[in-house]
Amino acid sequence: MSRVGTPPRRALIVGAGIGGLAAGVTLASTGWTVEVVEIKAVNATVGVGLNHPANALRALRALGVYDEVLAHGYQYRGIRRYDSEGRLTAEFTPVDPPDVPFQVSMTRADLHRILTEAAERAGATVRLGTTWESIEDDGVGVDVTFTDGSTARYDLVVGADGIRSPLRNLMFGNDHDPVPTGYACWRVAVDRCPDMVLSEYWNGSLVKASVLHLNEKTMYLLVVEEGDWDAVPDPATMILTLKDKLVGFGGLVGRARDAITADSEIHWAPLQEVFLPAPWHKGNIVLIGDAAHAVAPHLAQGAAMAMEDAIVLADELLGQGVQDALASFMQRRYRRVKYVQDQAHAILQNEMESDIARKAAFAAGLGDRQTEITRLLADAP
Ligand SMILES: Cc1cc2nc3c(=O)[nH]c(=O)nc-3n(C[C@H](O)[C@H](O)[C@H](O)COP(=O)(O)OP(=O)(O)OC[C@H]3O[C@@H](n4cnc5c(N)ncnc54)[C@H](O)[C@@H]3O)c2cc1C
Prior knowledge:
The protein has 381 residues and is of the alpha/beta class. The chain has a domain at 10-56 and 67-73 and 108-178 and 273-349: FAD/NAD(P)-binding domain, CATH 3.50.50. It has helices at residues 18-28, 54-62, 66-72, 108-122, 166-172, 238-245, 251-259, 290-293, 302-317, 322-351, 356-364, 366-376, and strands spanning 10-14, 33-38, 49-53, 74-75, 79-83, 88-92, 103-107, 125-128, 132-137, 142-146, 151-154, 156-159, 179-191, 199-203, 208-213, 218-226, 267-273, 281-282, 285-287. The relative contact order is 0.18. Bound molecules: flavin-adenine dinucleotide.
């Protein structure tokens, strides 16, 4: 069994994504010696943009980067929902909670830079182009051999290696691989239309398209349709394919479609979820973020859940040994994460609802539903 160690204890974090960098901040700033290894050789993120709902903003405040996020993001002012004929079906104007905005969106690149700098400021070191080759936990500590041939021993290993987590496979086998939702998502950043300030959602019969503002210059088009890995689009014709899918859409979605250029970088990926039963830890190794609980993006809670994991983990490690702390971490995280996963999944399912009346009723209540979720998640994570 592990016991309360004499600081500084050593932690290895696998993965320099949102959860891994957040854990770099929280562990390094609570006295741990922290190394982060990232398999990608270049310090960059994949994807376009992110929404941060109120609880994510509170997590970012706890990480010490709230002001930077606000300075680089776009404060959400509401959304208009249209049917495929361009008829307005619902409109939602958010009411900000007392302490933070209802939601702020930003580019993934800005968030990644801000979190990397925060982790390094806190004292974490990030090694790029490196991962583990073997991991042996003897119950007291964890011996790791890296792909560059180096070895080290740690009190704690944090797996923040994302939705396809190799560490999850090592710890729990392949039974918890990502589960396809049956839907895939196109994403692209385009120049923002400064005369339009609200977000929009258009409910086409085959595809559902949203546009969000990421900052003063950039907006973010997301298009969801049925699909899985067997429907991977041909990269050579992606731009035309995406534009074709949006023929007939007006408003901000139509303008985003028309703003796609030959240089636009289009991302396409199936939407998947991960449901790893508790516990997400074994011995002195714990999984956080998407590795443990990838959530459908419809509630924009994936990053929030990963960052909250990092905050709670460091908090629980403050006064106790690693294995006791991991048990307490699990107690605090499981119900909240499961609630978020269930809510996001319900919204995803409604997205493709074929019964028009049921779909309209759900969409009309979505703003209130999000307000209620925001209220419930206002408690400390
Ligand atoms: C279409 C879409 C839209 C989304 N929109 C939002 C949104 O608006 N708001 C929101 O909060 N969330 C959103 N999400 C979810 C969010 O992106 C994830 O929940 C979040 O990135 C999870 O963070 P993470 O650190 O767990 O994983 P990641 O951010 O994926 O980071 C994992 C890191 O681990 C690295 N890695 C992988 N394997 C290894 C290895 N063997 N060794 C070392 N490193 C490794 C990867 O290269 C990566 O850098 C969206 C997701 C999708 C698919």
